[in-house]
Amino acid sequence: MSIHVIRPGLFSAFQDTGRVGFQHWGVPVNGAMDPDAHALANLLVGNPTTAATLEMTIQGPMLCFQAKALIALAGADLGASLDGIALKPGHAAHVKPGATLRFEKREYGARAYLAVSGGYVLEPVMNSCSTYSRGGFGGLCGRALKAGDVLPISSSFANPPRLTVPAALRFAAATQPVTVRVLQGREWADFSETARHDFLHEPYQMTAASDRMGYRLDGAALDLTQPRQLLSESVTFGTVQVPAGGQPIVLMADRQTTGGYPRIAQVASVDLPRLAQLMPGDEVRFSMIDMRTAQALFIARARLLKRLEAAH
């Protein structure tokens, strides 16, 4: 059983929950940029949330199914249709042999996730099927899809679970600017009062020089009270670093394992999906919360996903 790639799209690659436990060897975690959409796509077809999905960026692929399957999309609306019939995110659909899934006009968001019931047949690398294109491993030969690729899938003819997708997991077109909650970073106090004020009160724009490794933002420059030399220390998904030029960079799924730039903030994990769906030119504002609030938000989202998983 397989899927034939007729057109690969802009950047379509397999991701799962990431390559956890190897950062001390310098191996990035990788994984889905929007973990909520990734999890939801899997739950809609009865897969565990750890199963790999196909992450599609801005422009989706054209895929021909060689066997019947149960599929679901979640995340951005990239204009999907199955044999000419619109297929919206948040819904599962049965696919007949020979059916074609194509993506045309993007409606909103940047990343969509395609799950197949039973999962894709991929070879794990360090306990993960996530693609790390810079390293050339994981997923399908460590790269994005190409025309002519054949994607093996497991056999599964199950009916879709009866899930009611809660509002908190329904992604829709966001108003601008997008508000993202953050916590104080390790070097927060080392930035000037003006810099701290501007970071929380001025909009920042995502630039075209952004990718899965990091989002480069353009806005008010953020200055330290005095120059500092820092040792490289561990960084994580959502760490906001500020290089010498003063323009912040938010580290994303393919981030390096350490960094030496001052860290003004850390994005609350519950808001990482909002960042993942930004397009170049979109505006973002940052709002400060404390650790207790961030933890409560994280726990609430985790419990929500667990309830959906238990409803299979």
Automatic annotation (TrEMBL):
It comes from the Bacteria. GO terms for molecular function: ATP binding; hydrolase activity. Keywords: ATP-binding, Hydrolase, Nucleotide-binding. SUPFAM superfamilies: Cyclophilin-like. This is Carboxylase. The keyword ATP-binding applies. Residues 24-304 form the Carboxyltransferase domain. It comes from Pseudomonas fluorescens. Pfam families: CT_A_B (PF02626).
